[in-house]
Specification:
By secondary structure, the chain is an all-alpha fold. The protein is built from seven helices and no strands.
């Protein structure tokens, strides 16, 4: 190769750079309604010795509800890390690396959609729509990107249909 990088993939759309970090962070974050929460999470909130006498709140940083106080900060940290990762991919990465990242996002989305992974369905839907739009636009670029993402497009189309359908609570699908 002549030493010049192909950068046409960078001009597709800014939505993935803008919208994916927060959505992907929400998908990677431990689900507050996960079926098997850590056994020690509720315990500190119930132990009187663990409470701060001045505020009445647990000294562990957990609110009185028993939910970890780190859920929002942890999600914010995950979003910042995701934003840095996307920035590195855009500034120093390659089309191949970018498509690998989007394939990883597709896997997160489809896992939430098919129920094999707990997660924020709204975040999964947003991520699915953003990546699907991106993959559809690849048809206008030279190279094999559009063909390479055919399976992901099909999986994302199915995930979008599933995630747009309201879920039933307590019953089977």
């Amino acid at each position: 190769m002549s030493g010049r990088r192909r950068l046409d993939w960078l001009g597709l759309t800014p939505e993935p750079e803008r919208e994916l970090p927060v959505a992907v962070a929400a998908l990677r974050a431990p689900s507050p309604a996960s079926p098997s929460p850590p056994p020690e999470a509720p315990a500190p909130a119930r132990e009187p010795a663990a409470e701060d006498p001045a505020t009445g709140e647990p000294a562990t940083g957990e609110p009185a509800t028993g939910e970890p106080a780190t859920s929002e900060p942890a999600t914010a940290e995950l979003a910042a890390a995701e934003r840095r990762r996307v920035e590195r991919l855009v500034l120093r990465g390659s089309r191949h690396g970018w498509l690998r990242y989007l394939a990883e996002v597709t896997e997160l989305v489809t896992s939430v959609a098919d129920g094999s992974r707990p997660g924020d369905r709204a975040a999964a839907l947003l991520a699915a729509e953003v990546v699907l739009d991106h993959h559809r636009m690849l048809i206008g670029l030279p190279g094999t990107g559009y063909g390479r993402t055919a399976e992901d497009r099909t999986a994302l189309e199915n995930a979008v249909r599933t995630l747009r359908t309201p879920t039933r609570t307590g019953g089977s699908r």
